[in-house]
Amino acid sequence: MKRWFWFVLSISFVLGACSADDKTSANPDGKIKIVTTIAQIAEPLSVIGGEHVEVESLMGPSVDPHLYNATHGDITKITNADVVFYNGLNLEANMVDIFDEISASKPVLAIGEVLPENQLLEDETGAVDPHVWFDLDLWKQGLEAAVEELKEYAPDFADDFEASKQAYFAEMDEVKDEAMKLSEIPSNKRYLVTAHDAFGYFGRMHNLEVVGLQGLSTDDEIGVSDIQETIQIIKEYNVPAVFIESSINDSSITAVIEGAKGEGVIVAQGGELFSDAMGEAGTVEGTYLGMYRHNVETIFEALMGDGN
Fold it and tell me: Could you tell me if 40 and 85 are in contact, meaning their C-beta atoms sit under 8 angstroms apart?
């Protein structure tokens, strides 16, 4: 890493340490300044924290957290934050050292890493699946840990945080109930084919067989054999549709569709799913619950069709 980066970082740590003890927000309006990596953390916490917080996500729509490198501006934002949250479980692989260092001067929490290990998924190599926000029950536990961190930081607002959390969790339960419609998809169509293996927790929660061309990280390579194996699954189970992802180039899914067509099998492009990133701010899909609902509806409509 470039020397200037570590120079800026070291200066930032000193400044952060000087003010860490008084727990006084740097915000002129007294709001707790929260910085997160992904919007799946930022947006729920902005709702739960309400008027007491100012939340900023470093990674916006269409940004791939697996490949993301912190910028100079990110370091400044992290340094000026009161509390920092990230997913962990190697999702933000290029930023782990930064969070380890900054945790000496302020609260920093990897909310995926507080979850019970026996509830986490692993791939065939033993790597932990970091996409835990697709299991609504697990994500509750992660958000619960984040809220507890906020309560400890600002105990005067603890009751407000708790009340808002309970209201938000009730909305999560509503989304979970709505997603039960996925059980109506016939068993021979319950195959969720996407660009990379981001939907394991979603599949486990909703009883779908998930097929990702890439592995858990988008840094993994896609070979001709991966595409051909996916085509064979489509042929064998008559999969009606495959899906692109908002934060990943659609070339691999296009190759699957064209390859299947070349073998006499027509498979539809079922629509765009939000996996590692949410939608644009200000849209329904730019909220965690809205993003989840969008995915449920898109998958349901595409897999209930005949794909022709």
Answer: no
Could you give the angle at which helices 39-49 and 158-178 cross, rounded to 10 degrees?
A: 130
The Cα angle at residue 164 between residues 161 and 168, in degrees rounded to 5: 130
Q: Are 193 and 239 in contact (CB under 8 A)?
A: yes
Q: What is the mean pLDDT of residues 164-168?
A: 98
Q: Pick from 278, 263, 295: which is nearest to 199 by CA?
A: 295
User: How far apart are alpha carbons 293 and 291 in whole angstroms?
Assistant: 5
- Residues with Cβ within 8 Å of 303's Cβ and at least 6 positions away in sequence, in order, are 185, 189, 190, 191, 192, 240, 241, 270
Contact 32, 162 (CB under 8 A): no
Pairing mode of beta strands 108-110, 191-196: unpaired
With 0.85 as the threshold, say if the pTM is over it: yes
Distance in angstroms (rounded) separating the CA atoms of residues 39 and 72: 20
Strand order in the sheet with 53-57: 53-57, 32-36, 83-86, 108-110
* 238 φ/ψ sector (left φ>0, alpha ψ -120 to 50, else beta): left
Q: What is the pLDDT of residue 220?
A: 60
> Cα 22 vs. chain centroid, distance in angstroms?
32
123-133 confidence digits (pLDDT tens): 888 999 999 99
In DSSP terms, which residues pair with 241 in a beta bridge? 268
How, if at all, do strands 83-86 and 32-36 pair? Answer: parallel
Average pLDDT of the chain is 89
Q: Rounded to an integer, what distance in angstroms lies between the CA atom of residue 207 and that of residue 48?
A: 30
Do the Cβ atoms of 154 and 32 come closer than 8 Å? Answer: yes
Q: Cα separation of 53 and 226, whole Å?
A: 45
At 265 the pLDDT is 93
